[in-house]
Write a structure and sequence with these properties.
mainly alpha; about 290 residues; about 0% strand; about 75% helix; 2 domains; globular; MetI-like fold
Length: about 290
């Protein structure tokens, strides 16, 4: 027993050390965002702020480009996640029922789609033929369904007790009412998990913007971050940007932008994190 306790202590020390190492880059970004630009330029900022100031963060928050890209990302994250959850649940529920006619056929189709994607070019041609290029709907529809997430939800539905649904149908509930009033309330762990998966995917959306968007007003937050990195690394700056970066710091501005854009996910994650293990474990056991 003593050997086991010693092993546990060593394991905790190792895992704590590794966890702290992974946090160092994050702490570095936070420290640069909150430090006096002079110390950032001199490279004197470590994992703790030096010369604490909010000037860099306020500069980022006041930029029209940042506010616009933030608004676009919030819109596609909320609307896209809601649409994705509706599509995922409505596809997963009938496929979770063995009595559903053609169930195996549709499951094979979904598995095939998950393994063999059509690729970027057909997807772009489809969006262009539908007139979605340079529209916010291109950003929403590009990630509105995940076969993997659908299978996770389907497997979770299969693990729910059938007696509860049967009781609801005996009381006269339709399939839709059973889904909304019985199945979904019992499936909060997996729904919260998949919702966060979709939300993070939309929030981190970058490639979709590169593929389908050229209008500066529709750029996502990740595109803005990329443009900002190029801007602060380039000598070709506008007079306003050049003046601002002369008093601030390119590295500090990048760190502040990353910090501000990450906060919404960091705030949301703790409320859904408790569902992660339960939702994924139960949703991936049955097949």
């Amino acid at each position: 027993m003593k050997k086991l306790k010693k092993f546990d202590i060593v394991l905790y020390i190792i895992m704590t050390t590794l966890g702290f190492i992974t946090l160092i880059p994050v702490l570095k970004v936070v420290a640069e965002a909150l430090s006096d630009p002079r110390y950032v330029v001199l490279g004197e900022v470590g994992i703790l702020p030096k010369g604490f100031t909010l000037d860099t963060i306020l500069f980022v928050l006041r930029r029209v480009e940042f506010l616009n890209s933030f608004k676009v990302t919030v819109i596609i994250t909320i609307v896209g996640t809601l649409l994705a959850m509706v599509l995922t649940v409505t596809a997963a529920y009938p496929l979770s029922k063995p009595s559903f006619r053609g169930r195996k056929f549709f499951l094979y189709i979904f598995v095939f789609i998950m393994l063999f994607s059509a690729g970027m070019v057909p997807k772009y041609l489809l969006f262009r033929s539908l007139g979605l290029i340079n529209t916010i709907w291109a950003l929403i529809f590009s990630a509105s369904f995940s076969v993997f997430n659908m299978f996770v939800v389907k497997n979770y539905f299969e693990g729910l007790p059938e007696s509860v649904e049967e009781a609801a149908k005996i009381d006269g509930a339709s399939n839709t009412k059973t889904l909304l009033t019985v199945v979904l309330p019992m499936s909060s762990p997996v729904l919260a998990t998949v919702t966060l998966f979709y939300g993070v995917t939309y929030w981190n959306s970058y490639f979709s913007g590169i593929m389908y968007i050229t209008d500066p007003k529709l750029k996502t937050l990740q595109q803005y971050l990329y443009d900002l990195i190029k801007m602060t690394s380039s000598s070709d700056l506008s007079a306003t940007d050049a003046e601002a970066l002369a008093t601030l710091s390119g590295d500090a501005v990048r760190s502040a932008t990353i910090l501000v854009s990450t906060i919404p996910i960091l705030v949301l994650y703790p409320y859904l994190q408790k569902y992660f293990v339960k939702g994924i474990t139960i949703g991936s056991v049955k097949g």
